[in-house]
Design brief:
The protein is mainly alpha-helical. About 40% of the residues lie in helices and about 5% in strands.
Amino acid sequence: SASASTSTPSRSTSLAALRGEYLATWDAATIRSEKRASVERVVDVLASHRDRYEAVSRATGVPWYVIAALHSLEGGGSSGRFTGHLHNGDSLNSRTSHVPAGRPVAPPSAGEGAAYTWEESAADALARFRGWNDWSLPAVLWQLERYNGFGTRGHGLATPYLWSMTTAYERGKYVRDGVWDPGAVSAQVGAAALFKVMESRGLISIPRG
């Protein structure tokens, strides 16, 4: 089916410039019918672990559903696993080896050489949001795209990190750090698709501005 995007995404990376684009894309995009079951399944898994996300939310100030989306996209949350760093999914048995490498800098609470807990790694990954208090829909989408990187905009496409499994995205993704494949299709559920289902279920209500 055709993309819901009304125009090529801006190459700007500033929230001020992108607020309107995020809202317009959100309003136009729908979850692809053939992907609905996959999105619903992941939301089921994330919602079942809401207590763990809310505990980290209380410690960091980041909304639980933002943490859940990051976990789904980075750390195995879509399968209910809590074995990877929230930074990038690397094993909690040691510091991260992929971008961003060497995180967390501090040793595990159990001592150097021990595994990190998912919660302490998550707190480190979410430290970038310290002091941030704009959790409107455009700001949430911007922060998530920023977390993953704005590189997809350089290819004139909406990032799958947000829009995979919605009509705003068809194909094109980075298949590994710095390697772009225009024909690759993301198999992950984008954060916007997760939020749309969460809102439809009454689990969340994200302010629009």
